[in-house]
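Dear all,

This email documents one entry for the complex benchmark we are building for the journal club exercise. For each entry we list the sequence lines for every component of the assembly. Then comes the predicted three-dimensional structure of the complex as a token string, followed by one or two observations. Please use this as the template for your own entries, and keep the labels exactly as they appear.
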Amino acid sequence: MRRMSPHRPSPAAPTDRETMAETPAEAPTAAVPQSADEIAAAAGARGLSILPECEAGVSANLALLARHARTMRQMPTATQA
Amino acid sequence: MMGIHEIASAVRAGTLSARALVEECLCALVQADRDLIAVTRVLHDRARAEADAVDAMVAAGQDPGPLAGVPYGVKDLFDLAGLPTTAGSTLYADAAPALADAEAVARLKAAGAVVVATLNMDEFAYGFATINAAYGTTRNPHDIARLAGGSSGGSAAVVAAGLLPFALGSDTNGSIRVPASLTGVYGLKPTNRDLPLAGVFPFAESFDDIGPFTRSVEDMELVWQVLAGREVAPTGKAPRLARLGGRFRENADADQLAAIDAIAPGAPLVELPEIARARSAAFLITAYEGGTLHREALAADAMAFDPQVRDRLLAGALLPDALYAEAQAFRAEYRARIEALVADYDVLLAPATPTTAPLVEDPRIEIDGAMSAARADLGIHTQPISFTGLPSLAVPLYRPGKLPIGLQLIGGPGREADLFAFAATLEAQGVTGFSAPEELVVPAQAGTAGYS
């Protein structure tokens, strides 16, 4: 059986991005989800489920993104602390 | 395979049949791809029809254009009318056919070029390696045990192998410049959003660009002019040069640094501020935009994605909106700062990749003394430049017999012409230039027959 191909996705509308950019006060509290509970909550909020086959890879990638978030925010990373 | 100018001149003069050239080209692509794994589809019927149309115009005394009869390929994310655009994913292998050509393809066709193939890539352009679970790992023509780089690896490989005189790729964080460096060809990331993106499958929208791969500066400039729809003259003055310092002097090949210092002895060493912050912000924006783009498909059928790409996209889809907004705000402020900083220079010199091509069997590279995934980190020197939006031309150091590696020539916004002029000087001096692979995979007769 052939898999149903999704429609080509479209990037979010610029107006949505502008709205987000107008809320910098949120930024310092915007943490990258890392624990299993945080990942499950973030996934649920976006209509996603993280299947068991994906858990390790998603967790590792979020850890990497968390390090980049700390670098961008000029906070010490784990190796620097 | 001849260069673009040579082919177009011969076709326009009626001394070379576009159809005969395309037949050779199709044959060579099929044969060589058994080793390279660079081609996803060979477009026999469309290529023949386009070549015949070019020959008919010549026979009727009309001019097909500056790219008359020149065969080329596209990364498998450019729309081609009547075909699904896969973006390197089996998810889209059965997608509805594109209704029209991508704007870039339409401009090339109007100039007489003939599209002959779609080319391999990392799934959804998310990677610097062209390791694709569905379509295979593209090999480097200089050593097929090594990666060609990515994500536009198929495009770079066919040009480096001499199978096509040029190909189109896309560059979000280095996906043209990285494979150009590893395969020893020229690759251009234009000024952000300067070349047409209509009909190109997106990756990270705010960084996405398209550009060509070629084997000479002259060919690069010609294809860029067709894509841009304009000719821009260089300033004509001696370029004001600078060398990028700081992180750009770390994680680099000794030959790259020696070449930069020889090209611009005594030129100022300019340090872009907060380069680590810039790369991290680029990483976050890319992850967020890529993850958000594919969120619906991930929710519907995550297991249909290439596993390594899937987990990266899922992670990106979970990033908080506010973190993305924070990264974009930093980017806007940073771009303005960098444009002011580099305004005193015409060309900035930097490495293109931190190393030569890694082995397929061990796709890792050394960064800051530790081994890391080539798929993620080959763009360590290109990603910060994408963050600035400046144009960057990857040029190959001329070193026959050695694995290729390249430099970036970075210019001011909209100043591609300055980059071409300086690159032509370096090429004429023998500092940079294409070196053919020692064991060409192209059949010996290709490029010599086809004259009528």
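Observations: Residues 4-428 of chain B form a domain with the Amidase signature (AS) enzymes fold (CATH 3.90.1300.10). Chain B has one domain: 4-428.
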